[in-house]
Amino acid sequence: MNRENERVLVSIGIFLAVFLLLYSITWFTNPMRGHMGMMGMMGAIGFPTWPFLIAILAVIIYIVMAPGRESETTSEEKNSDELINVVERVMDKDESLIINIIKEHEGITQDSLRFKTGFSKAKISIILKELENKGIIYRERFGKTYRLYLGDWLKK
Question: Lesser CB count within 10 Å: N end or C end of the chain?
């Protein structure tokens, strides 16, 4: 979220807080507060609830659009993609294919990878062993096969 959006949200929040404060003061000092008149929706206690609903809505909107949340995830994903692109440039096309499949299907089994690539068991095993020795992937035992994950340094 950029600075302009943040300023708008803060301005709306301040406006609503001042509005609620002034509205509450006029509500409790008004001798006709028991009558609905033009005030609209009334709560069970005889106090209009719609200003509070507006305030709650404003808080929800602020939480959804809170500064920093979007930029953190996108920058992490961007860094991860850049690292993977650098790694792929120094590898042959079979290794790049395997890394891309593991990236798209984190936790894929070695057997499933074999079917997706069409490579033999031996070829998959050799390539994965090399990638694991380089720290690009790691394998986790899963029954008689392995689950495959990108190395932690590629996820950051």
Answer: C
**Whole-model pTM?**
0.48
The residue among 156, 145, 26 whose CA lies nearest residue 81 is 156
Return the SS3 of 26: helix
Question: Which residues contact residue 100 at a Cβ distance below 8 angstroms, ignoring those fewer than 6 apart?
Answer: 88
| Residues 28-62 pLDDT 10s | 676 665 555 444 445 445 556 666 667 777 777 76
Token reading at 9 = 């949200």
Q: Let me know whether 99 and 63 are in one domain.
A: no
Please write the tens of the pLDDT for every residue from 94-128.
988 998 899 899 999 999 999 999 999 999 999 99
Same domain, 106 and 137: yes
147 touches 107 (CB < 8 A): yes
